[in-house]
UniProtKB/TrEMBL annotation:
It comes from Microbacterium galbinum. Pfam families: 5-FTHF_cyc-lig. Belongs to the 5-formyltetrahydrofolate cyclo-ligase family. This is 5-formyltetrahydrofolate cyclo-ligase. It catalyses: (6S)-5-formyl-5,6,7,8-tetrahydrofolate + ATP = (6R)-5,10-methenyltetrahydrofolate + ADP + phosphate. Its cofactor is Mg(2+). The keyword Kinase does not apply. NCBIfam families: MTHFS_bact. Keywords: ATP-binding, Ligase, Magnesium, Metal-binding, Nucleotide-binding. One of its GO terms (molecular function) is 5-formyltetrahydrofolate cyclo-ligase activity. Its EC number is 6.3.3.2. Gene3D superfamilies: NagB/RpiA/CoA transferase-like (3.40.50.10420). It is an enzyme of class 6 (ligase).
């Protein structure tokens, strides 16, 4: 059973990667701008003073301008730093463009690194995803970092995944460790999903 689910996920991830690769720079820029506005509104509506986000890679829906704006508005933004043991450390974002290459070639912050529990104090988590289904089940890219983080938090804040509109699916293959999200932010909408996880 588990092998079937893994195979289905692998095939779906490959398809989603391919779709993202086909987007033009202009489409990516427009999506990043719209997503940034929606994230600004989400942060404001929740009154979040401290958030976690991530530095988007080229093919991902863009979050970098949003992060810079949030920092300049005085919001504390924690950015993930991958560790070899499967956990995430966190670094406080600043408004410069210093970025290092992380373990998997993904962009990571260069500031002072805090331990995994630093994220316990945020009011909102903004996470990457490959896709999310209508029940809120999130599928990442297969390394499990965010599932581990969300699953281990004693008091998890609202978690919103950032994806493109075409990545909202009716259902997703699911494994025991997969963690749902509370909402989705796309270039055209912010969807709040009812969750019973907490």
């Amino acid at each position: 059973m588990s092998n079937e689910v893994e195979h289905a996920k692998r095939a779906l991830r490959a398809e989603l990667r391919e779709r993202r690769a086909l987007l033009s720079d202009a489409q990516r820029d427009a999506a990043a701008s719209s997503i940034g506005e929606r994230l600004d509104e989400l942060v404001e509506s929740l009154g979040a003073q401290s958030i976690s986000c991530y530095l988007s890679a080229t093919a991902e829906p863009g979050t970098r301008e949003f992060v810079t704006r949030a920092v300049r508005r005085g919001i504390r933004v924690l950015l993930p730093v991958t560790r070899a043991d499967g956990l995430l450390d966190w670094a406080v974002a600043n408004d410069d463009d210093d970025v290092a290459e992380g373990l998997f070639g993904l962009p990571e912050p260069t500031g002072e690194v805090l331990g995994p529990i630093a994220v316990n104090d945020v009011d909102l988590m903004i996470v990457p995803a490959a896709a999310v289904d209508r029940s809120g089940m999130r599928m990442g890219w297969g390394r499990g970092y965010f599932d581990k983080t969300i699953g281990s938090m004693e008091k998890c804040p609202p978690v919103y995944a950032v994806i493109y509109d075409s990545e909202i699916l009716d259902s997703l293959p699911r494994e025991v460790h997969d963690q749902p999200v509370d909402g989705i932010v796309t270039p055209t909408q912010t969807l709040s999903l009812s969750q019973t996880r907490r």
